[in-house]
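pasting for the record
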Amino acid sequence: MNKYELAVVVSAKIEDDARAATVEKCKALIERFGGQVTNVDDWGKRRLAYEVQKMKEAFYYFIQFDAESTVPAEIESRVRIMDNVIRYLCVRQDEKK
C-alpha cells in the first residue's frame, strides 16, 4: 500500500451541501477501488492563481489515502468528469526519512 494525496478544487458557485456531496463522492471513489481514506483537509475558499471557467475563487480539499498503485489512475479518470470539480491532482507521498 502506498500513501497518496488527492487535491480537489471545487467550484465556489455551488451550495454547501452540493460541495460536501462532491467531496463525499471523491472519498467513496477511493474506497470503491480498495483505498482507505486517512485524512481530509479542508482549506476552505481560496483565491485561484488564475481565472478558471470565469471563477476567481474556489474551495480546496486535500484527501490523504492509502491504496495500491493502480487506484490513482482509476480515481483520476472518474474525478476528471465530475461537474463541480474544476481542478484535481493526485500525487504519491514519499515516506519521511
